[in-house]
Amino acid sequence: MDLVDIFPAFGIRIECGPVTLRAMRESDATRVAELAAEGIHAPSARPFLRPWNLEEEQPTTSLQFYYRTWASVTPESWTLLFAVERDGILVGAQDMRTESFAVLRTAETGSWLGLAHQGHGTGTLMRQAILVFAFDHLAAVQMTSGAWADNPSSHRVSEKCGYGLNGYDLRDRQGEPVRSDRFVVTPGTFVRPPYDVVVTGLEAFARSVGLDVTP
């Protein structure tokens, strides 16, 4: 018996041209930690709720986050974690998280790219890949995302994928009130990638979370 037979989420793989999203595993933890340590954003930028990538404990807290996420997957509440590669090189991470997906058919995505790999269209492709997976393979009716008002790079990726502004919240970011913008995209507004998207490992995962989907 392979690990993917026990935990089917580990078998999901999404290929979109030069970009591949493959389910993150424990063996990826050190590589992802090293990539984050090399830099995710300019020193003056604050794209996250807290600067987790700059913290001395980052490798440990990241691994703890992965374990908590894997352990908490249920049909009612699940998060998929992906390591993102471009041309076989690890460049970042993508996730998709949801609750009551079988009823609501909506989920939220989050992602980051290593600083050295930004500016080449990878952020847009990885977001488009996860949206094709959600809309075409999981029958999602809408997908959401969020970004700080002072994070124009994330805003541009959302716009390129067909998201529209869907309100905002004021949140405490490291002791300062900052506007967090919300975005939503539907199958009708989605701007598709210029590549075919190939998904493997769908059927077993769908069964594991109680979804009846057609591959």
What overall form do the CA principal axes indicate? globular
Estimate nothing, just give the exact number of structural domains.
1
Q: Mean of the pLDDT scores?
A: 89
Tally of helical runs: 7
CATH topology: Aminopeptidase
Terminus-to-terminus distance: 24 Å
Strand order of the largest sheet: 7-8-6-5-4-3-2-1-9
How would you portray this structure in words?
The protein has helices at 3-6, 29-37, 58-71, 101-104, 122-137, 152-161, 202-208; strands at residues 13-16, 19-23, 77-86, 89-99, 106-113, 142-148, 164-173, 176-185, 197-200. It is of the alpha+beta class and 215 residues long. It has a nine-stranded mixed β-sheet, with helices on both faces. Helix content is 30%, strand content 32%. Helix 2 (29-37) crosses helix 3 (58-71) and helix 5 crosses helix 6 (152-161). The chain has a single domain, classed as Aminopeptidase.
What are the key terms here?
single chain; 215 residues; alpha+beta; Aminopeptidase; nine-stranded mixed sheet; 7 helices; 32% strand
What is the structure about, briefly put?
The chain has 215 residues and is an alpha+beta fold. The chain has helices at 3-6, 29-37, 58-71, 101-104, 122-137, 152-161, 202-208; strands spanning 13-16, 19-23, 77-86, 89-99, 106-113, 142-148, 164-173, 176-185, 197-200. α2 (29-37) packs across α3 and α5 crosses α6 (152-161).
Task: Give the topology.
Layout: H1 3-6, E1 13-16, E2 19-23, H2 29-37, H3 58-71, E3 77-86, E4 89-99, H4 101-104, E5 106-113, H5 122-137, E6 142-148, H6 152-161, E7 164-173, E8 176-185, E9 197-200, H7 202-208
Parallel strand pairs: 5-6
Antiparallel strand pairs: 1-2, 1-9, 2-3, 3-4, 4-5, 6-8, 7-8
Helix pairs in contact: 2-3, 5-6
